[in-house]
Amino acid sequence: MWRLASYTEVGEDGGTVPGPLGEAPAGLLIYTADGHVAVSMMKTGDAPALETYMGYSGHWRLTGDRMTHRVQVSAHPRMAGTEQIRHVTLDGETLSLRGTAVTPVGGRAPERVLTWRRAKADGTAFDSTAFDSTASDETAEQQEKETH
Fold first, then answer.
1. CB-based burial of residue 57 (10 Å sphere; 0-12 exposed, 13-18 middle, 19+ buried)?
2. Dist CA 73 CA 144 (whole Å)
3. Among the listed ranges 34-43, 56-65, 112-121, which one has the minimum average pLDDT value?
4. In the chain, what are the domain boundaries?
């Protein structure tokens, strides 16, 4: 499981600004070893934001540094049935996904960067096996027991 650390939009000048969920969004990203993905993100606080909630689920595929999320259901119906392709960087306990927005903003589809931190289900510590798609069934069963 991953917790959202930041969600930014890259401007034409290369600078970054807060993404559509505002300055301090919260979110969870879950990848399963058998290829499922679930993403939930929301705005926090009272500051205005373009969106208040974004979420979808489906299947994931990693090819080199390219992550593809094949969306099955979404809070935004226009995303259902699409493939969301992201450039992925994994650096220790940090996962970055970089890609283009689904819907153009101001006539252009902005580049967005989502940075995630690996986390245990209780959010108190990092768990180095959370994104390991080669983890054994025994490991997954043990993790399940530890979280319940």
1. middle
2. 25
3. 112-121
4. 2-147
